[in-house]
UniProtKB/TrEMBL annotation, chain A:
A Pfam family annotated for this UniProt entry: SBP_bac_8
Family annotation (InterPro entries): Bact_solute-bd_prot1, SBP, TAT_signal
Signal peptide coordinates: 1-33
Keywords, in A-Z order: Signal
Protein's UniProt name: ABC transporter substrate-binding protein
TrEMBL record, chain B:
Organism taxonomic ancestry: Bacteria, Bacillati, Actinomycetota, Actinomycetes, Streptosporangiales
Keywords: Cell membrane, Membrane, Transmembrane, Transmembrane helix, Transport
GO cellular component: plasma membrane
Positions of transmembrane segments: 36-62, 93-115, 127-148, 189-212, 233-253, 287-307
InterPro entries: ABC_transporter_permease (IPR051393), MetI-like (IPR000515), MetI-like_sf (IPR035906)
Pfam families named among the record's database cross-references: BPD_transp_1 (PF00528)
Listed name of the protein: Sugar ABC transporter permease
Tagged with keyword Magnesium: no
Broad class of the protein's primary localization: membrane
Compositional bias annotation for Low complexity: 13-26
UniProt-annotated location(s): Cell membrane
Topology in the lipid bilayer: Multi-pass membrane protein
The keyword Magnesium is assigned to this record: no
Length: 438, 319
């Protein structure tokens, strides 16, 4: 086109303003039409729109899996869209799902399926279809499968588990003498033992023993509270065990006030403090693994320490969900379920991000067993501690935000554990009393 | 704008004497019909993107509209009643007002000081000063907050490192209840002072040099010239800057949201009212309730702006 225009220099001015505008409109029209299902019909391909919240290392791994998926599925017009985790994603998700035109399949945190409209926005997963692809309760970590089930219906296809774990800087811990014969961090059985380990590590780093995100203390708090056997009821009258909650909060306070952990360390600073050797241990989610690996750090990972008993850690699970459709589209549902099953079966790639695949044939396989340090905390995933159920609870939801804003003062010493607990109880009761918008 | 407005006014005024003759009437009608087509595009945009959302928002505040539901129902004044009894509304409104109080004075004073410095600078260094004072304003908020978040880091941040060299113990800037809002204010001043500076610089260049010359001949010192010539002649600009700055400071949200990772800071010490509106509407999915709070805030902004205009125009009358 362009060549013809330039060679025929006389004819070039013929393309006047109006013709140019008309051509532009036509081009825009074609482009708009391209967004609709028209091209799907024309190409004869099954369109599959996927929404996800994976950026960074997770995003790269998902793209890698998607490339493989595309190669094996030439008949699918696969259209993934990525949004930033947190409010930016959940907001679009809720609006998109309410509009009923946004996606055929989307990723979500299992802790949010209740809050984001299981039954109203999310449609149950056809388990018979899933079983045809070999995905049943027998091939998924059972506690996660159950978490995806509401009133006997499966609302999500779980891809993985991710949870709070304990990272350790190997050279530092070796010097501190807190490694066992296999080169792993020693297990602890109570508060004092954990403090002793931290103190020994602090001797070596000269600054701190351990670091945890003080601005998002919900995760360690929930891990510790669950280790103590605490329950949280978020219906009617708030049900919380004050003594256990206080013990968990006081533990966080002691960590910072005794100088074993920084009084202040936000989401970005926490891995930086660990990586820079300011602290030799880190209590954080397994998703920091790729960053630290890329940095070439010599570190190990183990489950969240069993300070009050079992080694339980707060966590969640990424899953696939299907929207409620205004007009049934069985082909799209079939393609979506097939895609989810494919992702689960190939989730050993996904495990590179530190997440524990939910599909047990993968985690029991040879390839996964060789993954280090992932294989070290695999069993902890079987007992991951999900957030309590409520529309305002779960990943990036209001209860976590409130806990973060309130508990951060426990680390800095601005509030006592008792005052923080009172504030948290008020905030939680306030949320319970709010009429559910879902 | 005014240049364009004048010619259109003249033809309108000109045919007025002819209006008694019948053909002229239809001519005016045709002309005004043509006028509609010129006004229409803007009117449509104005109606669709301003008037309609304004009404829709007000209507939403009387419903239980939710992001996660398609239908909503009328709930009367219950959102408004809830709002007036919600301590978080008043607490976050206070955060916004406090932020406005602590940012407006430095943003005006520092901008003036920088403009005076540059105005007197020689051409050789002037361009550099103008550039460096204005440059931060060109940065997107995400970049600004990222830089400052790392500078504020308590363990390895630049600011605490500098403080340590003079023996001051480290401060947990963004995680301390008393420090988080001042820290965000400092970042905001650094980031946005360049705009006010530019306005002041332009105004300074509009003050004729002969006034200073005459005053100097009359024996007025530098301070006298500043208070009796510069300040009064900048009054209009100052009014404008203070008004714009107050509205800008009241709109606090993005930097506070980003610098506290959306948490609102320790014990919500840096959650402005827009932050709370966002939380109610987007985290909490309650659009109806969020709309009610936005209307409260809308009223506050109007009251503040009117008060401020009154206050300044009185001063101007008196002068």
């Amino acid at each position: 086109m362009r060549k013809q225009e330039t060679t025929g220099s006389r004819s070039a001015p013929v393309l006047g303003r109006r013709a140019f505008l008309a051509a532009g409109m036509a081009a825009a029209g074609t482009a708009l039409a391209g967004c609709g299902p028209a091209d799907t019909v024309l190409s004869g391909k099954q369109r599959l729109r996927q929404w996800n919240l994976f950026t960074g290392g997770d995003g790269a791994r998902m793209v890698e899996m998607h490339e493989a998926y595309r190669k094996q599925h030439p008949g699918i017009d696969f259209q993934p869209s990525t949004f930033q985790w947190g409010n930016p994603y959940y907001t679009k998700f809720a609006m998109g799902a309410a509009g009923g035109r946004a996606f055929d399949i989307a990723t979500l945190h299992v802790s949010r399926i209740r809050g984001l409209g299981a039954g109203t926005l999310l449609s149950p997963v056809p388990t018979d279809l899933l079983a045809q692809h070999g995905i049943t309760r027998d091939t998924i970590t059972p506690n996660i499968w159950d978490k995806c089930t509401i009133d006997g219906e499966l609302f999500a296809i779980p891809l993985d588990t991710h949870l709070m774990v304990n990272y350790f800087n190997r050279p530092v811990c070796e010097e501190a003498g807190v490694l066992d014969s296999d080169g792993n961090l020693v297990a602890v059985s109570d508060e004092d033992e954990f403090f002793e380990v931290c103190a020994a590590v602090k001797e070596v780093t000269g600054q701190y023993g351990v670091v945890t995100d003080t601005t998002h203390a919900w995760r360690p708090f929930w891990s510790l509270y669950r280790q103590l056997g605490g329950e949280l009821t978020l219906e009617g009258e708030l049900g919380i065990d004050d003594d256990k909650a206080l013990r968990a909060l006081d533990f966080l306070r002691r960590l910072s006030q005794d100088g074993l952990a920084p009084k202040s360390s936000d989401g970005a600073a926490t891995p930086a403090n660990f990586q820079n050797g300011i602290a030799g241990l880190m209590l954080s989610g397994n998703w920091e693994l790729p960053t630290l690996k890329d940095a070439g750090m010599d570190f190990g990972m183990r489950p969240f320490p069993g300070i009050y008993g079992e080694e339980l850690g707060q966590g969640d699970s990424h899953c696939f969900v299907l929207p409620v459709r205004r007009e049934p589209d069985e082909d799209a549902v079939a393609a979506a379920v097939e895609y989810a099953a494919w992702m689960l079966k190939n989730s050993v790639t996904w495990a590179g991000g530190g997440h524990v695949p939910a599909y047990t044939p993968v985690t029991e396989g040879r390839e996964y067993a060789d993954l280090q340090p992932q294989a070290n905390y695999r069993h902890a995933a079987e007992n991951v501690q999900f957030d309590p159920s409520a529309w305002f609870s779960g990943s990036a939801a209001q209860l976590q935000a409130d806990a973060g804003a309130i508990f951060t003062g426990v680390h800095t010493g601005a509030v006592t554990p008792q005052a923080a607990l009172n504030r948290f109880k008020r905030a939680a009761q306030n949320l319970i009393d709010t009429t559910s918008p879902v | 704008m005014t240049v364009h407005a004048n010619p259109t006014e003249t033809p309108d005024a000109a045919p007025a004497p002819r209006s008694s003759s019948p053909p002229a009437v239809s001519g005016t009608a045709r002309r005004s019909a043509a006028g509609i087509w010129f006004v229409l595009p803007f009117t449509v945009l104005f109606a669709v993107f301003l008037i309609w959302p304004l009404i829709a928002g007000l209507w939403a505040s009387f419903t239980d509209r939710s992001l996660a539901k398609e239908d909503s129902s009328f709930v009367g004044l219950s959102n408004w009643v809830e709002m007036f009894g919600d301590p978080a509304v008043w607490q976050s409104l206070w955060v916004t007002l406090l932020f406005t109080l602590i940012t407006v004075p430095p943003l005006v004073a520092i901008a003036l000081a920088m403009a005076l410095l540059t105005h007197r600078a020689t051409a050789r260094i002037g361009w550099f000063l103008r550039f460096s004072y204005f440059a931060p304003f060109l940065m997107p908020v995400a970049v600004v907050t990222l830089i400052w978040e790392w500078m504020y880091q308590p363990e390895f941040g630049m600011i605490n490192d500098l403080l340590a060299t003079v023996g001051i113990p480290g401060v947990s800037w963004l995680t301390g209840e008393d420090t988080v809002l001042p820290a965000i204010a400092l970042t905001t001043v650094w980031w946005t002072v360049g705009f006010n500076y530019l306005l002041y610089l332009a105004a300074l260049q509009g003050i004729p040099a002969y006034l200073y010359e005459a005053a100097a001949l009359d024996g007025a010192g530098a301070w006298r010239r500043f208070t009796s010539i510069t300040v009064p002649l900048l009054r209009r600009t100052t009014t404008l800057i203070v008004l714009l700055q107050m509205v800008a400071s009241l709109k606090l949200f993005d930097q506070a949201y980003l610098m506290t990772n959306g948490s609102g800071g320790p014990n919500y010490a840096a959650r402005p009212i827009i932050g709370y509106i966002f939380e109610s509407g987007f985290t909490g999915l309650r659009i109806g309730y969020a709309s009610a709070i936005s209307y409260l805030f809308f009223a506050v902004i109007i009251v503040v702006s009117v008060l401020q205009l009154r206050l300044f125009s009185r001063k101007e009358d008196a002068a």
